[in-house]
Amino acid sequence: MNMKDWFEINYIKKDLIIIRECLNLIDPRYYTLYSNIYLINGNKKSLLIDTGSGLFPLKPIIQNFIKNKPLIVINTHAHFDHIGSNYEFDEVLIHKNELDIISKPMDISFLKTSPNKIVSLYERSNFLLNPTKNPKLLKDNTTFNLGNLKVKILYCPGHSEGSISLYTNRGELFTGDNAHYGAMYLPIKQELPSFIQMIHSLVDLCIKENINQIFPSHEDYNLDRKFLSSLIDCLNKIDPNWSNKKFDDFNNCWKIDIGKFMFMMKRE
Q: Is the pTM of this model over 0.85?
């Protein structure tokens, strides 16, 4: 497999491009088919949301779309499947709670036991992700002006301590890993009420800013905001269905299926 075969690239709009990786081919133990990388291609600047797994070079693909325009690179959080190609770019922004993580090499030796042979490509770096060359602090409520579009940052701790979402001035919300169909990785059970409240705040944001297009970092994309209400309904069913949970050794978490979601709750 090569770079062209690995990435699935589609235009959502003329200035919004999705670049997808099949995370399931890296390791099916995450129960996740797709990772979604987004490129917002403004008429003066471009903004890249996450850099993927780092299995194949990403920068040549991005450069082909943006040409000579300045590029802003942002991590929604610091898990390996979102920061893998950070090192290819001159500067990457991330919330302060996870700035230290991307500043150092990341050990991904846990992938050595994947049943899929493609992970052997990580052997060239000894199962280490390169550190980000120039990690920069990403502040809550920062607005990036891309020319014809504006993108604003919203701090949304939940999936991780430094998770952020982004929204545009034309009604698009990029939720990172805080909201998506399929296997959703949650904090410990005691923090579930706070997580649900955070999703409620995203619903409120959608109403206030007239947002009706949701772009998660995994699985289905271009969802309407009813998706968030469906997520809240299913999150509220975790407690009544807690007896149906099963323990997942690889992810060290409790797994419970409710509706279109597989909730993976961190063990206390």
A: yes
Identify the three-state secondary structure at position 255.
strand
b/e for 177-202, b at 16 or more Cβ within 10 A?
bbbbbbbbbbbebebbeebbebbeeb
User: Which residue in 234, 264, 228, 229 sits closest to 79, CA to CA?
Assistant: 264
CATH of domain 3-266: 3.60.15.10
The per-residue pLDDT for range 4-19, each reduced to its tens digit, is 789 999 999 999 999 9
State how far the alpha carbon of 24 is from the alpha carbons of 20, 157, 219, in Å.
Answer: 12, 25, 11
Q: CA-CA distances (angstroms) from residue 143 to 11, 13, 46, 157, 268? A: 24, 21, 13, 19, 36
Q: Where do the structural domains in the chain lie, given as residue ranges?
A: 3-266
pLDDT single digits (tens) 70-100:
999 999 999 999 999 999 999 999 999 999 9
Q: Rg (Cα) of the chain, in Å, rounded?
A: 18
Name which of 111, 103, 175 is nearest 136 in CA terms: 103
List, for residues 135-174, the tens digit of each pLDDT value. 999 999 999 999 999 999 999 999 999 999 999 999 999 9
